[in-house]
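pinging the channel bc i need a second pair of eyes. not urgent but kinda urgent?? the chain im working w is below, pasted from the shared doc
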Amino acid sequence: MLKRALHTNLPRDRKRRKTEGEGVSGALGFDLCTEASGVEGKRKSGELSMTDKSVKLKQKEGAGNSNGVEMTVECVDYVLQLPETVIHLILSLLRSTKDAARTSTLSKRWRDLWTSFSVLAFDQCKFQAPEGVKDKKTCNAMFKEFVDKSLQSHFERNLGIYKLVLHLNSFDQDMAHRIEQWVGLAAENKIKEIGFHASGHYTLPRNVFASETITGLRLEGCRLDTSSNITLPYLQKLYLRKLPLDQSIIMNLITSCPQINDLRLILGTGLNHLQISSLLKLYRVEVHYCHGPALIEIKAPSLETFWFCGKKNMPCKINLAECESLKRLTLEDSGMTDNQFRDRFFMFPLLEKLDLHKCLNLKNIRIASHRLKRLVLRGRKKLVDVEIDTPNLLSFEYEGDEMPFSFLNPISLKEAKFSFAPVKNVISEPEWFLKMREFLGKLDHRNFKLVVYTNKNVIIHENLRETSLPPNCGLKFELVQASVSTEELLDSSLQKRQVETLSIFSSSGSEFLKLVRKTITRKEDPTCCISMNSTNKCWQHFLKDARMVNLKADEHVAPWMAWLKSHPRVNEITCFRLKWKSDKDGRMASRQGLHLT
């Protein structure tokens, strides 16, 4: 299970988010080597040992082999044989300290690797002073002493350090001196990443920019003094958040750090012109809600991902003409016109993913590509017509008031999500109802199930030919591959929604309906989740009751569901009324995402 969790935690396309978190940071300061040793000590003697690199399975041949030859099958566990650099990368991507520490149980080799990998995280806001100590100066002094002792203890054990994270909210001359010492100690011990998060006008010490081992810098809320020489020859990831920036600072960093491949600027100020032209390995650039810039020019032959979120009423000219390798483009640009979009889109023949968010001036656009695999359109109120000619599109997502798009050939589509805003005083079906039915008619009904969400109700159509849409407009639709398991489908439908009724459109004797009934049957002690933490439990642990109801007899369900019976092509409609645990158990469910009735 732990190895499967490792694969689950590894992000697709690194699961990069708009704002980068610190993944494995703790409340005060965590030494993951210590955490690992604690987990290792809890291993029971009866558990399966995974220290062997391979397992030999021997089996006697049956009657078909008169010689009774003994077969040997060698199963190699490649997870346990990964290179150290890959294991360190896995550990750095895990979402919490405990998850990272638990990997030490995989094998002795993984446990030993903790001596060369650790993440030290210190948060001044969350520092807990001893009971009775309330004076701010005393608390700050104790925090400094705590960090000093933690680092000293770590280095006395000759432990390497992978990442140092500091969250600081108050500064004085002594704190500035301490920070310089802490960073210096980390640099001497071949640190790989530094995360520095400050609230105030603190200027980062110069020794941060003088390390030949640092590969990642995440800086927030401070000032940069880059007037001195910068020696970061192996820096690959540079994330700057809430920093005063200008082109000279960026140019100084870029020219001194030729290995940068991932650059993210978030909520920066003072940057009027962003120009990048000398980073040959640059594959990702993100600019989010910076004050400005008026012009972005990037010349990077290896750039694959560009993500721009502009501020409202602050137009920005974007020039990516020499980024011919671009595969993923995300734009949130309220000032972009139809002509500007056309020029940008058709410039990138290799584009595989296109996300358009709040591009409010777009009205009539055409999206045609044989390579595009994912398309997202969100928040375009003025959009009138979108012609989509993408024969290899796998995923489509739309959010808006109407349905302005038309697909010429959605033959390869695997999944789709639609979200429509409510319309007041609806007398008849809105126009987009007809367009939705036309779109569904172009799909192979055998390959999909349609899930409809409205208010606190979920309707699952087993067959697209038997689709009936509710007579209101606050709807969300999801097209799901028919091959998706019943458990996965119910998990996605019930885990984070306030669901009161679950209705199934199906044919008589449907196996799918039988599986749904079996899955939602109340279990006294579900064994589906191995985690002991209630916040990690799935919806089955909070389901109090699920009973089948008669659409005519149930007063709560009947008024909303009356339209179901009016559909002549539906062979069978089954409706379940769901009730969830409340009070103390309900609060636990709320923490893990369930909204209970």
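so DSSP finds 14 helices and 27 strands in the chain. and Residues 444-597 form one domain. — does that match what u expected or am i reading it wrong
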